[in-house]
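Extended Data, panel c. Modelled sequence:
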Amino acid sequence: MNKRLLVIISVFTILLSVGFALCQMTYLAKNQSITTDEKVHIPAGFTYWQFRNFYLNPEHPPLAKLLVALPVFLHHPKYPDTTELFKVEKDFYYDSWAETRAWGQDFLFNSGNDLHQIVFSARMVNIILTLCLILFLSFWSFQIGSWLSASLTAILASFCPLILAHGSLANTDLLITLDFSLLCYFWWRYLKERKLQWFLMSALIFGVSALSKFSFVGFIPVLVLTSLVVALADFRKKSSLPLQRRLLKKSWSAFLKALIFVIIVWFLIMLFYGFSFKLAPAFTGLPQLHEALSPVAIRAIQFFRSFLVPAWYFKGLFMILGGAVYGRGAIYIFGHFITGGSWFYFPLTIIFKTPIGFLGLLAAAICLIKRFWKRDYILQLVLLGGSVIYLAVAMASKTNLGQRHIMPIYPLLIVFVSQIVLTIKQKWQMVFLGLVIIAVILSTIFNYSNQIAYYNELIGGTKNGYKVLLDSNYDWGQSLPQISDYISKHKNEGSIYLQYQWRTPNEEKYYNFSVPDLKAFDATKDALIIIDPSSLEKAPYAWTKSLPVVDRIANTIFVLQYRRNTSLK
C-alpha cells in the first residue's frame, strides 16, 4: 500500500476511534445517574477548593477530586453549613465517611443546585483525560511500531468497555490509569537510554500518581523489579572493572538515584499540602491494622508518621492499607459471598469482563513474545512485566471492589498487543486480525447503554454477569433514570415495590418516582418487584429468587412477578 495513503487511513482511523469514545462517554455521562463514589468525590473536591483543606474523604489523595470539582464552580453552586461536618475531624483517626456522604447528599440534592449540570461538568474532566490517554497510547505505539500499530491501539483503547465506563465517571480511577501509562513510558525511555530527563520525568509522574490515588504503591514494585532485571542484564556484559568494584559502583549509583527519586516525590507531596509539617497523632486508629500487622510493621508506621509527611496524607494512606490488609466486607463470586477477599478475584474480571477478541489478541501476542523481546526487551519488560507485577500486587490485596482497580494495566496491554501488527506478513493474517477487531467493536457497541455492567460472551453477556461478580463490576448506582422510566410506564398496572441498594429519598425526588420499599411488601396483592442483583442474592430478600423474571432494566436490574397465590420459600 502507498505509504501516504496508509498514513491518511491510519490518522482517519485514530480520529474516528477517538470520536466514538467521545460520543460514547458523553452519552453515558448524560444518561447515567450519579454513582456511589461520585456522591463523595465531587462534594469533597468542592470543599478542597472552597475551604482550602483536605479534611473530607482522606482515603484518596486530593488531586483527582480537585480536577473533577473545578468545573463545578462554573455553576456557582450553593453549599450547606459545614460547622458540624468539620467538628468530627477533631478526632484525627475518626473515619467521617458517613458524615461526608450525608453532607454530599445535601450539597448535590438539597441546596438548590442543578445536579445534572454539576455531575456532567465533573464527568467531562475525565472524558477529556480519557481522550488524552487514547491519543498518548497511539503515539507510543507509533513510536515503537508503525501507523498501523497506532491505529490498532486507538481502536482497542476506544472500544475498551472498562476505559469507556470509568472514563465517563467523576472518580479517581481514570487519572491513576493515565499516570501509570505515562510513568511506564518515561521509565521505559530511561531504562533504554539512561538519560536524565527521562529519570526526572518518571519521578515527577510518580509524584503526581502519589497525589492521585493510594494504589500508586503498586507502581513501586514495577519500577524496582524492572530496574533489577535491566541491571542484571547490564551486569552480565563484559567489563574491565573487577566484579567487586562493579557491584559497589552499581549499588552506590542505584542508592543515589533512589534517594533523588524519593526526594522529588516527597517534595511534590509537601508542595501540594502547602508544606504542612504538622505530624499525625500517635498511631492509635484503625484497630484492625494493629491486629493484622506485626510489631515491626507497626513500628515502621510510627516511623513513617514522623518522616515529615502531611498528617492528612498519612491518615489516608493507612486507611487504604487497612482495607488492603483486612478487606472491605464480603465480595460476591459465582453465587457465594466471601469475606477477606480472594486472589482469583481480579483474574476473573479479566476473563469475563474483557472482550473475547482482545483476550485472543493478548494470547497471540504472548505467544510471539520471543520476537518482541528481540526487538526491544526493555519495552516488553515494562509493558507485559509491569502489567503482571501490578496485577500480582492487586491479587495480594484484600480490597476487591471491582475491575476498575486493575484498569492501569489495560493501556499497557493494549500497547503490547498492538505490536502484533508488526509480525503480519500474509494477507490472511491481516484479514483475520480485521475480523477480531470487528468482534471487539461489536461486543462493546452492543452494550453501549451500560458499559459498567459489561460482560463478554463467555458468560453469555451482560445479562448473565450477575452470576460471576457484582459491586462496581455490574451496578454502581448508575441505573436510576432507567428505573424511573420503567416505573412511570408501569405504574398503572398494579403494586410496584423497589429494592435498590443505591436508592435514597433524594434520588427518588430528583428522578420523580415514589414506590414503596420491599420491606413494606404486602403478600396479599399481586405486584411487580424491582430488585438489584446484590439484594437478590442475600437476606432478607433471597426469597425473591423463586419468583419468575418478567423483565430486566438496563440489562442488570431484575423485574419479578409476584402473584398473591404464590408459595414463598
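The mean pLDDT is 89. This feature is highlighted in the accompanying rendering.
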